[in-house]
């Protein structure tokens, strides 16, 4: 009914709005085993390890909504971060840097029984440089006797150490009261900046595919000076690039510009970067190296885009290295490897010379249009009605689920709910998705199909 539909739309609209956009972000950093996860769980009031609600992004999303004394904020836990054996210090520092960049305030956790280590000192430097509010937590202070050990942490020069026992809750209330006093009411980092119609692009790809070359080719000498574009605010890590007289915001380009991270290639770190960029972007441009085979890392990045529900353009870079033989092989590889992503516009470019980079704008526009597409309930049901009449769901165990009704509840990306009388075969769902794409376009965008079974 009309009423049900309105309810449904309202429900999904709240889901769709980034519920957390604008909430202040508190990052928890510190070496492994100092008790970060325990502290997060303490704040969230949960005992068990925090679980992920989104399949496919088990470890790279580490933000949780939290509440204390009636105030809401986001906690970003770095507990899942892996530390690689070789470059332990460096890796911790990098991860900390990323967390600090994306936080409004930082909770720096040290194990009071161990005291500060050389790694901690490096992180302290980063914290000081950031100029962000820092709360120093001396954890594992389970009793009064241990308070003295906490006091030694004054030596870090980060102000008062807050003695707590994340495990038992000792001191946690005072700590959180203090955290709230330094956390801004409204985030300066988490909400996408209003860019007044300037679309936000994440430029992604594994190291050496040519991201910085492409960014340079696009930005060239025409790099837009921020204050020339009236009313446009942005993060310092974002870059405004003018393509054919129109400004685009390339988000989170710091990681692209900063070459020192390249050699490290810590996968987990890279995937956090990707995730961070995707959160801010509307459309992702994923670069592939045409001279190289499609790699697992390429696939992971593409999957991250789909999971994040962003529009997608695939760019085959280094086309100058592709001869006829390679071109045939590449086509075969991509037909097989990217079969689930047939909907994404694909363009071939040579970042080094700028060849075909003028095709990028069109592809981005197409993808953004597909991403924003809204199909009316009338059109959707007329189409599905005919489709299902001509191709009914196969009978399973004497039963045949019927499709009752469908509606697109939101866009960016398009989200369609189908009401049925029973579970639909995955193959049949894919069939429906494919036909929906053929009928309504949906170029360059993932589609979220959900099934609601009505008795
Ligand atoms: P993380 O790696 O920083 O996330 O650390 P965890 O939260 O996983 O904690 C590492 C270990 O320290 C676990 O065995 C915890 O039970 C323990 N731990 C955490 N907080 C406290 C505390 O306040 N007191 C004591 N005694 N142990 C703690
Ligand atoms: P990033 O790590 O993704 O930022 O990659 P870079 O832009 O630093 O490029 C990595 C290497 O690939 C550099 O040596 C570039 O000169 C080279 N490269 C980038 N684009 C092209 C291209 O279109 N053709 C060729 N032949 N080399 C390229």
UniProtKB/TrEMBL annotation:
Domain of life of the source: Bacteria
Organism: Boudabousia marimammalium
Molecular function terms from GO: GTP binding; ribosome binding
Domain EngA-type G: 24-187, 199-372
Gene Ontology biological process terms in this record: ribosome biogenesis
NCBIfam families: GTPase_EngA (TIGR03594), PRK03003.1 (NF002828), small_GTP (TIGR00231)
Function: GTPase that plays an essential role in the late steps of ribosome biogenesis.
Keywords associated with the record: GTP-binding, Nucleotide-binding, Repeat, Ribosome biogenesis
Protein name per its UniProtKB record: GTPase Der
